[in-house]
Design a protein that fits this description.
Distance between the termini: 18 Å
Number of strands: 15
Shape: globular
Structural class: alpha/beta
Strand content: 5-15%
Strand order of the largest sheet: 7-6-5-11-12
Helix content: 40-55%
Oligomer: single chain
Number of helices: 21
Radius of gyration: 29 Å
């Protein structure tokens, strides 16, 4: 939180910024203006219209922005891309676009643009003014989104595997909220069916074991110590007179486990707005209704005592079993009713976070919704790969059914909330995640979380020392003094924060933000090693203090989206 004096300074900066000619211009605005300049040049040259890219090149030595327009025009104009690029560059150089200092060409025909240092220097004002809202977008303004994640049935504690789902879902929700969406976090579960019957029977057997009666443990029963704990709780609360198959075993097991699941999630800073029970769609008739509608469309049929969904007529290789010969419905049936309900609730965006084991099933749900006449293009399914725990370089073997697993609570207790949250999003969700417990426990800059948080703590320490010396954030700072190459490199990357947040939204990939923060921290550490903040030059000191304040804002905002803390001391 900023002090009263800091808030006064920021208010003064707002006034100062209103007089600053570049105050309203951010990187996105500059790209739009440059895009218009390129488009105007194409019109002047009578070149065809093309959808071209304009983004930072991979190699920063080529400039700040690069376009592939000349390559795209090569076939239309029957010219080499390099020759087309020269023609466009000559046209642009007649009157350089605002804040562009140079247009250059790189093989095989890329147009590269250098942006003035003044533009990047001016961004400090924007960052300080926006403060904890810097980087926020309005893509989702006035829109609603539903994010369903975790959705583990109450058969046991949340494990490491559930943890990746939970953190991905919560962080994606944060990304959407940062873009202005009103987000509903939803947990969908089933407290009936075969798994719950096995859970109840497992608890029942342990209950009678405590009483000295040995019953046959169910095949594929749940063997964890938590089952014995639940049995003991039931014995303490209901006494020793319960009979076999008493519904108390199921009811209490579900209640206790669900309480523990919610507690585990709250510990990670995750709360849900809505819990939806699969059983609802059997009781309210939604499942019977949609099955009847599919039957009317000749998309449901009986074969081998089972009910089938005729997906082969909808582009699939083979039909899918909807209801097994045992009478047990497959996941596709209630999941379709559930998604139909979500569609009817009118969300602008619906997101499901699923493990790789759902890859085969969810397309059939989408197919059924489309067959029922529902819109589905606003449903986004995020599939994440699974997690392997490593200790000493060796894989920790886990089996949920045999209770040979590491719970999410145990993981948090061992390495901390920040590490757990960050490690689960620092790799693409499409990649398998090796969660290295040794690295997670490391308190050096080898640990990526420590590296990020140390940058924030270091900034706080510098600001504290400067304040003690009577030098703080000052509205008279001169951004033109920030001309060292490491200062400019830092400022350039800071100005791209809103772009990376928008990219994270477009891809629904939290890793984008994690990667950005790592690079920002690296640039800050390099800046700090080459540019003393507190110097004998008072004006330079004041300007550099403004830079580190702006860096601190961006780090804190990024941490907030990822759900990790921003420590002031380490």
């Amino acid at each position: 939180m900023y002090s009263k004096r800091m808030k006064e300074i920021i208010m003064t900066l707002k006034d100062y910024g209103q007089m600053h000619p570049l105050k309203k211009l951010i990187m996105k605005d500059l790209r739009l203006k440059l895009t218009e300049s390129i488009s105007q040049a194409l019109r002047t040259l009578s070149f065809p219209k093309k959808d071209y890219s304009l983004a930072p090149p991979k190699n920063s030595e080529f400039g700040d922005l690069s376009s592939n327009i000349a390559l795209l025009l090569s076939r239309d104009l029957n010219k080499q891309p390099i020759d087309i690029a020269k023609i466009i560059a000559d046209e642009l150089n007649r009157a350089l676009p605002e804040n562009i200092t140079k247009v250059t060409i790189a093989k095989p025909g890329f147009l590269n643009f250098e942006i003035s240092n003044e533009f990047f220097q001016s961004q400090i004002i924007k960052i300080l003014e926006d403060n904890d809202s810097y980087g926020k977008g309005d893509i989702g303004s006035g829109k609603t989104a539903n994010v369903e994640f975790v959705s583990a049935n109450p058969t046991g504690p949340l494990t490491v595997g559930h943890g990746r789902n939970a953190i991905l879902g919560d962080t994606v929700s944060n990304i959407l909220q940062w873009q202005g969406f009103e987000v509903t976090r939803e947990y969908y579960f089933n407290d009936a069916g075969r798994q719950m019957r096995i859970l109840g029977k497992s608890v029942e057997v342990r209950y009678f074991e405590i009483l000295g009666k040995n019953l046959e443990f169910p095949e594929e029963g749940y063997q964890g110590s938590y089952i014995k704990d639940i049995a003991q709780t039931i014995l303490n609360q209901y006494g020793n007179e319960l009979k076999s198959d008493d519904p108390i075993f199921n009811k209490e097991a579900e209640k206790i486990i669900f309480h523990d699941i919610k507690s585990s999630l709250i510990k990670l800073g995750i709360t849900f707005d809505k819990f939806t029970n699969e059983k609802t769609f059997y009781e309210n008739g939604d499942i019977d209704s949609f099955l009847e509608k599919l039957k009317e469309k000749n998309l449901i049929y009986e074969k081998d005592n089972a009910t089938w969904f005729k997906t082969s007529t909808l582009g699939k290789d083979q039909d899918r079993v909807y209801i097994k010969s045992s009478g047990e419905p497959t996941y596709r049936v209630p999941d379709t009713a559930y998604h139909q309900d979500k569609v009817k609730r009118g969300f602008d965006l619906i997101i499901d976070v699923f493990g790789a084991d759902h890859t085969d099933a969810y397309p059939d749900v989408i197919l059924a919704l489309e067959a029922l006449g529902h819109k589905t293009d606003h449903i986004k399914v995020l599939i994440y790969q699974f997690v392997t725990l490593l200790r000493g370089g060796e894989k920790i073997k886990m089996s949920t059914r045999k209770a040979n697993f590491v719970t999410l609570d145990e993981l948090v207790d061992e390495v901390g909330i920040d590490v757990v949250r960050y490690f689960f999003v620092m790799r693409s969700m499409n990649a398998h995640l090796d969660f290295d417990l040794d690295l997670a426990a490391d308190q050096s800059d080898k640990n990526p979380v420590f590296y990020l948080q140390y940058a924030h703590a270091r900034i706080c320490n510098i600001i504290s020392r400067a304040n003690d010396m009577g030098v703080g954030l000052n509205d008279s700072f001169d951004s033109s003094l920030l001309e060292h190459e490491d200062e400019i490199a830092l400022l350039k990357y800071m100005s791209r924060f809103p772009d990376f947040l928008e990219l994270a939204y477009e891809n629904l990939e939290p890793q984008t933000i994690a990667n950005y923060l790592q690079e920002l921290s690296a640039r800050f550490h390099k800046f700090y090693s080459h540019c003393r903040v507190i110097t004998d030059d008072e004006q330079l000191t004041i300007s550099r203090i403004a830079v580190i304040h702006a860096s601190k804002i961006i780090l804190a905002n990024g941490f907030k989206i990822l759900g990790i803390s921003a420590p002031e001391r380490m």
